[in-house]
Write a structure and sequence with these properties.
2 domains, mainly alpha, 393 residues, globular, Growth Hormone, Chain: A, single chain
Length: 393
Amino acid sequence: MNPKAGLLVLAAAGFIAVTTELLPSGLLPEISRELGVTESAVGSLTAVYAAVIVFTALPLSKLLVGRVPRKTLLMAAIFTFALSNVLLALSPTLPLAIGARLLGGVGHGLLWSGMAPYVARIVPAHSVGKAMAIVFSGNSIALAVGAPLGTMMGAVLSWRTSFLVLAGVAVALGILAAWLLPASLEAGRQSTPSLRAALAVPGVIAVAVAWPLLVLAHFTLFTYIAPFLLTSGLPASGVSIALSVIGVASLVGIWIAGMTADSHPRRALLVTVTGFLAVFVLLPALGGSWAGAIIMLALWGTAFGAIGIFNQAAILRVGGEHRDAANSLTVVTIQLGIALGASYGAVAITTMGAGLVSYAAAVPIVSALVIIIASRKSGYPSGPGERPTNGRA
């Protein structure tokens, strides 16, 4: 079976996962009003979703991988999203809605723990970067289109309708997955993932720390993009435009990373992270005008989209035979990065003011850059296109 069709199915699964994760934030006022609770209480629908991923991704990976075929696990994750969204749409109270979101978080952890290692088994090793670029495009499309469209539907019809439609799409995708996803090359012969063995592999810790630091930096500012832009002097209408610019630009970054992650992974990542740092340093000075803000936001989205591909390819390479456990570890640490980024950003706003929060976000980027530079022999080695001209890159 053609693996490209399977990659498109996985990209659609990523779209479903990220849209499911983000949609409650866009529909927060509507959910709050109908369930009769405060908006801050509805925010728990997002918090518990991330929390359950942190606590279940590694145990589920250890329990199920090696015992259940990878294709079956991915299909189960997709149908779990469908069930979670149906239950959420039918929930009459907040506690029941939270229960539905807990189920969705389990599906999310299961999907992202198994997706990348599965991709690495259905495509040649020299094409992993391009394959992950296809899969990760679903995330950016969800950010740029899925969540805004679901939010618009919820405002015009009802928030329950948005989640029911999303559930229907997940069911259809699950059926397509049964037909189009190829069997894993190592189905039936894979061993149970060992986190201890993965941590002992040189380079795994470097990637599992540097990548979440970059995610932390992103969410330090992204979580509070509205007050940052308003403080910079842009109108409230600019917030939705900013989010779309970042989401669309991330697709460009994914495309660029797909072209370079297999041949020039180290050099391209160093350039990308350096550019990411420059954006956060320059934003307070240039973000006060539409022209400056759009340019900076576009560069931000491009860099962040590429960073995900470079690091995903890196953890699969350095993990080797323990890549399942190594990948599950990054799923957990990235969720921690998201949660800590939001908290760190809140502290930065309180102490520095919304207009300077990007400077706080630059600190973890510097830390990640130091790790990447220091890990040239293990976590982030040169690729085949870099070694002939500069073996020390």
